[in-house]
Write a structure and sequence with these properties.
By secondary structure, this protein is α/β, with parallel strands linked by helices. Mean pLDDT is about 85; it is low at about 1-40 and about 380-385. The chain has helices at about 20-30, 65-75, 85-95, 140-145, 155-160, 175-190, 200-210, 220-230, 245, 280-295, 295-305, 330-345, 360-370, 385-390, 420-430, 440-460, 480-495, 515-520, 535-545; strands spanning about 5-10, 50-55, 75-85, 100-105, 120-125, 130-135, 165-170, 215-220, 240, 250, 255, 255-260, 265-270, 270-275, 345-355, 395-405, 405-415, 465-470, 505-510, 525-530. The protein is globular, with a radius of gyration of 23 Å. Helix 16 (about 440-460) runs parallel beside helix 17 (about 480-495).
């Protein structure tokens, strides 16, 4: 079985994401919010009566100690294989989750929208819950008058619009908490009092644009969002995310005030779900595990993770008004499309692309195909369903720095809202012109890419700006990593906004994983690994969730 893998800069890079991530995106609209990305764990063991093989969101890592006790009491070992909710849900709906007996994702709502989704489920039981909430620095909550009370979504919009609330939120295109935040805001602000419909999206777009004026920190997963906030909370005084994730966080030495909008939010219910394909023995194992998880002592243990359970706990103190999940695929599609093309803040993406001699042949063809996949407009023939959501969007600027032993060529393209298809075609033509020749000057070329990114950010501090570095080899020419590190430190000392420009490093071929991981860590970015046989397009598409 193939799984995706996003690694932190602090981890050793492993295999990258699947191209199927894009194909599933418009159908599900979200992924789980893993602290370290999908694990790409080994294929599960064969069926055994004493093992329940579960495809799970990797945010459940903190529940593993509880599961050890479950095994002692029931004789059933719960074997978790971590993946993203989006990818795992699509595998289940496609009938491709062979080898697993159950799933344990934040929600089954999106599974219910997919063809084959409902039919794949034998039975399901909600084990615990965690609503999507807003964690606000205490000083900011005092200023806004939100201490001891929950604001409405309209109040949140007003605070974001006038600059008092500057928040971090994951991308709704790649993260379950980001998608749930967007759905909650759109549903409440629509004022219809019912489930969000496709026609409501246009009506509420203006309010959502006002909300995004306070969006100051973005990420493709909750884990990365929390890492960036923890490393440098300056400029951000709030985060949207799961209540259980927000409660341990601090700002200014004080815990965040964790608030749920009074007019509603969405909640992760963590249903443990038996798949219809599981055997009778696995069904009995599932029943034993569920019974134990729902027992009062274990519910108390789960409450200690910050999630809400029947045993209560500090996280269960406040009531939450639950908003409905969209009940039509067309609504999900319309909301995400509007987010990408007209609601979210515009961004600049800078690609530093290694086309040294070692890239000649199949490697260059793979690279060009991966970059071209980001220029497939919505609904184009031959494009995977949903792929257009990960393509470059209107109002984005795309910058390329092609390098070998020195910078070979550069290209900058504005994606024109009035002619997006033409803009994407021009980008595709440029990437098709890449040619392999020469050595590898990673650090000097990255410096050029950074100068490009910094000039954009200094001209417009409100834009999201990032660098994506692709390389297939070790540095052979020009400056060293130490030289780049020293240059980066000088820019920071001079007050340039280097901390606001993360570098996402795609490690391919013989690239040095230790050095590239250090580059990503230095810049507050992430590493994404793509083996020779991996779908490189999937890696670039996954990175799009962070831009």
């Amino acid at each position: 079985m193939r799984t995706s893998r996003r690694t932190s800069a602090r981890d050793t890079p492993r295999r990258g994401a699947l191209a199927a991530l894009a194909a599933a995106l418009v159908l599900a609209g979200c992924t789980s919010d893993p602290a370290r990305g999908a694990e790409g764990a080994a294929t599960p063991s064969g069926p055994r009566a004493d093992v329940l093989r579960v495809l799970a969101g990797s945010e459940l890592r903190d529940v593993e100690p509880v599961l050890a006790g479950v095994a002692e009491r029931t004789g059933v070992r719960v074997e978790l294989t971590y993946t993203g909710t989006l990818e795992g849900t699509q595998l289940v709906a496609d009938g491709a989750a062979a080898g697993y007996d159950a799933t344990w994702f934040p929600s089954n709502d999106h599974l219910a929208l997919l063809d084959g989704g409902r039919a794949a489920v034998a039975r399901s039981e909600d084990v615990m819950s965690s609503p999507v909430a807003l964690g606000v620095a205490h000083a900011t909550a005092l200023e806004l008058g939100w201490v001891g009370r929950s604001p409405t979504w309209a109040e949140v919009v007003d605070a974001a619009d006038d600059g008092r609330l500057r928040y971090g939120m994951t991308s709704p295109v790649s993260s379950n908490s980001g998608f749930a935040t967007l759905v909650g805001a759109a549903t409440a602000l629509s004022g219809t009092g019912t489930v969000l419909a496709e026609q409501d999206v246009a009506a509420v777009a203006g309010q959502l644009r006002r909300l995004t004026r306070g969006h100051a920190l973005t990420a493709g997963s909750t884990g990365f969002l929390v890492e960036r906030f923890t490393a440098d909370p300056r400029g951000v005084n709030a985060l949207f995310g799961y209540e259980s994730v927000l409660r341990p966080l601090r700002a200014g030495g004080e815990p965040l005030d964790v608030l749920t909008p009074s007019d509603g939010t969405l909640t992760a219910e963590y249903p443990l779900t038996l798949l219809r394909s599981a055997g009778e023995e696995q069904g009995r194992a599932y029943d034993a595990v569920v019974a134990d998880l729902l027992s009062e002592p274990v519910q108390r243990e789960l409450a200690a993770t910050g999630r809400r359970t029947t045993a209560g706990g500090p996280a269960a103190a406040a009531d939450v008004y639950e908003l409905p999940f969209p009940n039509r695929l067309s609504t999900v599609r319309a909301l995400l499309s509007a987010w990408q093309s007209e609601i979210k803040k515009p961004s600049d993406v800078v690609f530093a692309v290694d086309t040294s001699g070692s890239m000649d042949g199949e490697r260059l063809t793979q690279l060009q195909g991966a970059l071209a996949a980001l220029t497939v407009p919505d609904g184009d023939a031959g494009g995977a369903p949903g792929q257009g959501l990960l393509a470059f969007q209107a109002r984005e600027n795309v910058h390329y720095v092609e390098f070998a032993d020195a910078v070979k060529s550069r290209g900058t393209f504005a994606v024109d809202p009035a002619d997006r298809v033409g803009s994407l075609a021009r980008i595709r033509e440029w990437t098709a012109s890449l040619h392999a020749q020469g050595g590898t000057a990673i650090h000097d070329s990255l410096r050029v890419a950074y100068e490009e990114a910094l000039s954009v950010l200094e001209a417009d501090p409100e834009r999201f700006v990032s660098v994506t570095l692709f390389t297939d080899g070790e540095n052979t020419d020009g400056g060293t990593l130490a030289d780049f590190r020293a240059w980066h430190a000088r820019q920071a000392a001079a007050g340039r906004p280097v901390a606001s420009v993360p570098t996402f490093v795609v490690v391919f071929g013989e690239a040095d994983p230790a050095e590239t991981a250090e580059l990503a860590a230095l810049t507050g970015g992430e590493t994404f690994a793509a083996g020779e046989a991996a779908a490189l397009a999937g890696v670039f598409e996954e990175i799009r969730g962070y831009q």
